[in-house]
Design goal:
heterotrimer, B: alpha/beta, D-Maltodextrin-Binding Protein, domain 2, 5-stranded mixed β-sheet, 3-stranded parallel β-sheet, 20% strand, globular, transport (chain A), MetI-like_sf (chain A), ArtM/GltK/GlnP/TcyL/YhdX-like (chain A), MetI-like (chain A), Amino acid ABC transporter membrane protein 2, PAAT family (chain A)
C-alpha cells in the first residue's frame, strides 16, 4: 500500500480509534444485511426450493436464461464491432482537413450523444418503418447502440490519435507518405493499441445498455428473466419473481466485473510493454460509463 | 486466485441447490401437447394471400407473449394460450403445421404498425376490433368477446364496484391499450398508472402501489390466477371488447377465408376445445357461446 | 398542427416531470456520491470497502435492473415505494456511483504536495479534505461531474418503463399516430431533453472557465 497523503499513518491511539470505527462499521453493515435477510426470510424469499429453480434443468430456467444471455452477448458483440468501425471512421472524419467534413461529422457525433439511447432505439424500430425502412428488433437495438457508442468512441479515438507523438506524424510525412498512409499505417495502429483497455471498458457500457431492448420487446437477458417470471407466475404465483431478477442482475454484474478486470489487465500489459503509452487516457470518463445518455458536451481534454 | 475460489464456491452452491429440486421443475414435464388439425392438399385461388402462405408453408403470427391464458411465452420462448390456438386453427386450414408457424411478439402499441409494415401476416393478440383501428388495418372475427373489468386486492379494501368508483384511485393499465384509453376518455378522475406490460401492474397491485388494475376480464382472470389469492375480480364488465384477427387492410379474400375458418371451428368444436385447453383451464369455466362473425 | 395543440399540455407535463426527476435525482446523486467519495479515501477500511462495493455493484448493473429492484424488489423487504420517488431513488443511487468516480479522480488529481502541506500545517483528515482537497477537486471535476449529471438527465428516460409519465413515455403512448405526427413527437421529445441538457452543458463550460485553476 502506498503511503496515504490525506492522513498520517495512524499512531497507537488513532489505530485504536480506527479499530473501534472498524468494529462499528462492520456491525452496522452486518446489521443491515441481517435486517434485509430477516425481512426476505420473513417473506419466504430464502427457501432453497425457490432458488433451486435457477439451477434445475427440469424447470427449463437455466436453458432459457442461457439463451437470453446469448442474445444479449450477440447484440453487445455485433454492436461493439460495428461501433468500433464506425467510431474510427467518425474520428478520422473529425480530424479531416476539409472543413465541411469536420462540421458534418461533428454535428453527427454531437447529435447522437445528445439523444437518449432509449429514444434512438425507439425511433429506429417504430419511426423508420413509416418511411419504408424495416428493422428487426435485433437490428434496431444494435443500430441504436452503434449510433450512440460510435459517437462516444469517435471522441475517444480522436484523443488517442492526437496522443500519438507529433514527431511521428511529421517523420511519416518526411518519409513521403500521403495523409491516408500516415493515418492508416502510423497513427491508427498505435491509437487502437493504446485504446484497447478503453474499448473493453466500453463493452461493459454496451452490455449494460442492451437491457434497453425492453422498449421494443427484444428478448435479451432482463426481458428473458421477466418472461420466465410471467410464465411461472400463472402456475406458482410470484414465488420465483425475486430469484429470477436477482439471477439476471448477478449475471450482468459478474460478466461486467470480469470485463473490467480484463480491461485493467490489458492496460497493465500495454503500459509495461510500451514506453509511449504513458500519456494515454486509460479510463473511460465517468459519464460515458453511465451508458444510455453520455455527456452532451465533449469530454474534457 | 480469488476469482477461481469465488467461482468454485458459487458452483458448489449451485450444485447443492440443484440437488433439491424445485416445484417448477417437477411440474414442467406435465405440460400437455395438443395439435389441431392440419389440412392436407389445400387449394386456393392463384395469387391470393392464402395460396402464397400455403405455398411458403409458413405463416408469421403476431401475438402477445405476456398474456396468461391467451399468449404467454413458455421457457422455450414459444407462446401458449387461446390466441395461439386460434392462430393454429387458421394456419391449419392453410395446411401449415403448428411447428411451421413463426411467432412474433407484439405489444399493444405496435400491432397496427406490424401489420402495416408486413412484419406479420396476421395478429391474434387480444386485439379489440374498433373503428379507429379499422382505418389502418382490417379485422376478421371476432373470435371472442371480452369486457373491460377491474381487479383489486382481495377483500376489495377500497370498495371499488365499478368504473365510477375509480375516481381519485390509482388505476394501472398498459400504455397504448384500449382499456387505458377508455379510462382516459370516460373516467378522467381516475389516476392512471401505465406500464408496458400487465405483469408489472399485477406486481404493483400486490405491493399496494396501485389500488386497481383494469383491462379485459379474461386477461385479469389470468392475473387473478397468478396472484394465488392476492387478487379478486370485481366482476362487473363495463364494455364490450370483440377480439378480432388483424390483417393487412384491403385483403378481403384473406379476411373472408379467416372468417370462414373461424366459423367452421365454431361448428366442429375445435374452437371450444382450444378454449378448454387454454383460457378455460385457467378460469375453470366451459367455453362460452361462440360470437357472431362480423363480415363488414 | 392540430396534433401539436391537442398534445401541448401532455408535452408540458412530461417535460416538467423529466425536469423534476432530474433535479431530485441529481441532488440525491450529488449528496450520496460526495459521501461515497469521502468514504473511498477515508482511513477506515470497512468504509472504503463498502464504498468500493457500492460503486462496483452499481457501475456494473444496468440502470433498468436497478429500477426493477427499487420498484419491485424493495417491497420484498416490506418497503413499498411510489413510482416517482422510486424513479428518483433508482436514478439517484445509480448516478451516485459515477459522481463518486468523478470526484475520486478529481481528488487524485489534486497534487499530493497540497495534501502533504495541509497535513504539515496540522489540519486533520476531515479538515484537509474539507478545506484543501475537496474545494480544488470540485473545480477539476466540474466538467466530468457536469457530464455525469447531463448523462443522468438522458438516463431518466428509463423511468418511462416504470410508470413515470416523463418525456420518453410519450413515445409508446403516441406511437400509433401517423408518420408525420410520430416524427413530430420524436422531435418534441428530443428537443425536450435538449432544452435541459444544452443549457446545462453551456453552464458547465462557463463554470469550468470561471473556477478553473491553473496548475
Amino acid at each position: 500500500m502506498t503511503t496515504p497523503v490525506l492522513f498520517d499513518l495512524p499512531g497507537p491511539k488513532a489505530r485504536r480509534r480506527i479499530r473501534i470505527g472498524t468494529a462499528v462499521g462492520v456491525l452496522v453493515v452486518v446489521a443491515i444485511i441481517a435486517l434485509v435477510l430477516a425481512r426476505l426470510a420473513g417473506n419466504g424469499q430464502l427457501e432453497a426450493q425457490r432458488w433451486a429453480v435457477l439451477f434445475d434443468p427440469a424447470s427449463q430456467v437455466p436453458q432459457a436464461l442461457g439463451q437470453a444471455l446469448l442474445r444479449t452477448l450477440q447484440v453487445a458483440i455485433v454492436g461493439m464491432v460495428l461501433a468500433t468501425v464506425l467510431g474510427l471512421l467518425l474520428a478520422v472524419g473529425r480530424l479531416s482537413e476539409h472543413r465541411w467534413v469536420r462540421v458534418l461529422v461533428s454535428t453527427l457525433i454531437e447529435f447522437f450523444r445528445a439523444v437518449p439511447l432509449l429514444v434512438l432505439i425507439f425511433a429506429l424500430y417504430f419511426l423508420l418503418p413509416k418511411f419504408g425502412i424495416r428493422l428487426s428488433a435485433f437490428w434496431a437495438l444494435v443500430g441504436g447502440l452503434v449510433l450512440y457508442n460510435s459517437a462516444v468512441l469517435a471522441e475517444i479515438f480522436r484523443a488517442g490519435i492526437l496522443s500519438v507523438d507529433r514527431g511521428q506524424r511529421e517523420a511519416a510525412y518526411g518519409l513521403g507518405m500521403r495523409k491516408t498512409q500516415v493515418m492508416t499505417l502510423v497513427l491508427l495502429p498505435q491509437a487502437i493499441r493504446r485504446m484497447l483497455p478503453v474499448l473493453i471498458a466500453q463493452l461493459v457500457v454496451l452490455l449494460k445498455d442492451t437491457s434497453l431492448g425492453f422498449i421494443i420487446s427484444f428478448p435479451e437477458l432482463l426481458r428473458g428473466a421477466r418472461s420466465l417470471v410471467e410464465f411461472f407466475t400463472l402456475q406458482f404465483g410470484n414465488q420465483y419473481t425475486f430469484q429470477l431478477y436477482v439471477a439476471a442482475a448477478v449475471v450482468y454484474i459478474v460478466i461486467n466485473l470480469l470485463l473490467s478486470w480484463l480491461a485493467r489487465y490489458v492496460e497493465r500489459r500495454t503500459r509495461t510493454s510500451q514506453k509511449a503509452a504513458a500519456t494515454t487516457p486509460t479510463e473511460l470518463p465517468a459519464d460515458v460509463q453511465m451508458g444510455g445518455g453520455g455527456g452532451a458536451v465533449p469530454a474534457a481534454r | 486466485m480469488r476469482i477461481t475460489r469465488y467461482a468454485a464456491t458459487l458452483g458448489a452452491l449451485g450444485l447443492v441447490l440443484a440437488g433439491c429440486s424445485s416445484e417448477a421443475g417437477q411440474q414442467a414435464g406435465e405440460a400437455t401437447e395438443n395439435a389441431p388439425e392440419v389440412a392436407q392438399d389445400v387449394e386456393f385461388p392463384a395469387g391470393s394471400t392464402m395460396a402464397e402462405l400455403a405455398e411458403a408453408g409458413t405463416i408469421t403470427v403476431g401475438t402477445k407473449f405476456d398474456q396468461p391464458g391467451f399468449g404467454l411465452a413458455n421457457p422455450q420462448g414459444v407462446p401458449e394460450g387461446f390466441d395461439v390456438e386460434v392462430a393454429k386453427i387458421v394456419a391449419g386450414g392453410l395446411g401449415i403445421a403448428p411447428e411451421a408457424i413463426e411467432w412474433k411478439e407484439t405489444v399493444s402499441a405496435n400491432r397496427e404498425s406490424f401489420i402495416q409494415n408486413g412484419d406479420v401476416d396476421i395478429v391474434v393478440a387480444t386485439y379489440t376490433i374498433n373503428d379507429a383501428r379499422k382505418q389502418l388495418i382490417d379485422f376478421a372475427g371476432p373470435y371472442y368477446v371480452a369486457g373491460q373489468d377491474i381487479m383489486v386486492a382481495t377483500g376489495n379494501p377500497q370498495g371499488i364496484e365499478g368504473p365510477d368508483d375509480l375516481a381519485g384511485k390509482r388505476v394501472c393499465s398498459v400504455e397504448g391499450s384500449t382499456p387505458a384509453q377508455n379510462i382516459r376518455d370516460n373516467y378522467p378522475e381516475a389516476q392512471l398508472t401505465l406500464f408496458d406490460v400487465y405483469s408489472k401492474c399485477a406486481d404493483a397491485l400486490r405491493n399496494g402501489q396501485v389500488d386497481a388494475v383494469t383491462t379485459d376480464n379474461v386477461i385479469l382472470t389470468g392475473l387473478v390466477q397468478g396472484g394465488q389469492g392476492a387478487f379478486e375480480l370485481v366482476g362487473n364488465p363495463f364494455t364490450q371488447e370483440p377480439y378480432g384477427i388483424g390483417l393487412a387492410k384491403g385483403d378481403d379474400e384473406f379476411r373472408t377465408y379467416i372468417n370462414d375458418t373461424l366459423e367452421q371451428s365454431f361448428e366442429d368444436g375445435s374452437w371450444a376445445a382450444a378454449w378448454d385447453r387454454t383460457a378455460g383451464a385457467i378460469t375453470g369455466e366451459p367455453a362460452p357461446e361462440p360470437p357472431t362473425i362480423d363480415r363488414y | 398542427m392540430d396534433f401539436v395543440r391537442e398534445n401541448a399540455d401532455l408535452f408540458l407535463d412530461a417535460f416538467l416531470t423529466t425536469l423534476g426527476l432530474s433535479l431530485l435525482a441529481g441532488l440525491v446523486a450529488l449528496v450520496l456520491g460526495t459521501l461515497l467519495a469521502a468514504m473511498r479515501v477515508s482511513p477506515i477500511p470497512p468504509l472504503r470497502g463498502l464504498a468500493t462495493f457500492y460503486v462496483e455493484t452499481f457501475r456494473n448493473t444496468p440502470l433498468t435492473v436497478v429500477f426493477f429492484f427499487i420498484i419491485f424488489g424493495l417491497p420484498q423487504i416490506d418497503f413499498v415505494i411510489g413510482f416517482f420517488p422510486g424513479a428518483v431513488l433508482s436514478v439517484g443511487l445509480y448516478t451516485a456511483a459515477f459522481v463518486c468516480e468523478a470526484l475520486r479522480s478529481g481528488i487524485n488529481a489534486v497534487s499530493a504536495g497540497q495534501a502533504e502541506a495541509a497535513r504539515a500545517i496540522g489540519l486533520t483528515f476531515g479538515q484537509s479534505l474539507r478545506e484543501v482537497v475537496l474545494p480544488q477537486a470540485f473545480r477539476t471535476v466540474v466538467p466530468p461531474l457536469g457530464n455525469v449529471l447531463i448523462a443522468m438527465v438522458k438516463n431518466t428516460s428509463i423511468a418511462a418503463g416504470f410508470s413515470v409519465s416523463e418525456l420518453s413515455s410519450l413515445l409508446p403512448r403516441l406511437v400509433n399516430a401517423d408518420a408525420g405526427d410520430l416524427t413530430l413527437v420524436l422531435v418534441g421529445v428530443v428537443v425536450g431533453y435538449m432544452v435541459i441538457t444544452l443549457p446545462s452543458a453551456l453552464a458547465v463550460n462557463r463554470i469550468e472557465r470561471r473556477v478553473a485553476i491553473l496548475r
